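Support reply, case 0932

Customer input (verbatim):
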Amino acid sequence: MDLFLIRHGESEGNRAGKLQGCQDFPLSVEGKKQALLLGQFLKSTKLDALYSSDLSRAYETAKAIEKYQHVPLIASEAYREIHLGPFEGKTREEIYKEFPDMRNKNLLTSGIEGTEQVGVITERCKQLINGLSEKHQEKTIALVSHGGFLSIFLMFLMLGDDWYQFHRPFRLGNTGVTKITVKQEGNPVIHYINRDTHLASKY
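Our regenerated output:
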């Protein structure tokens, strides 16, 4: 299975510098332009399935891809961003003011009450890779999701259940495309991460 992992276009939450989590923010004007360029970029790639988070910023981005494909878009809350509870809708400085101990910690895996816990995130990653692998052997799939969840998913693919014990180096930009190949046996192959050459055409 060839799997394209794609972060959504710029959202209004991104523009405001807010941690969005599962709060719903639409694409900004810039994000809509990015999504259009992304859809055109993937036009020559024949997809056998297209999945998306059901949050607006991801769903709108995926619709721009669907426009050039011949498969229906399937949206699900299973592909949402990490739930950040009391951090959601706030800037980092607002969070640090309210939770000063968080300044030098990873907000995605803080363990703070009300946030999505490591065990739940791990289970989501397992269900994602197992579900897609079972349904789409030898197929080409695209998933539009969120930077935090996708970067953790990459860690899980490489490190398994212990992913959270290691530094997470991935920073995925808006509409950045990551391509991996998942075999029935053996470790996944990462072809590239965060490719955004399609955005160059807007300048």
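We compared this against your earlier run and they match. Two observations from our side: The first strand starts at residue 2 and ends at 7. The radius of gyration is 16 Å. Please reopen the case if you see a mismatch on your end.
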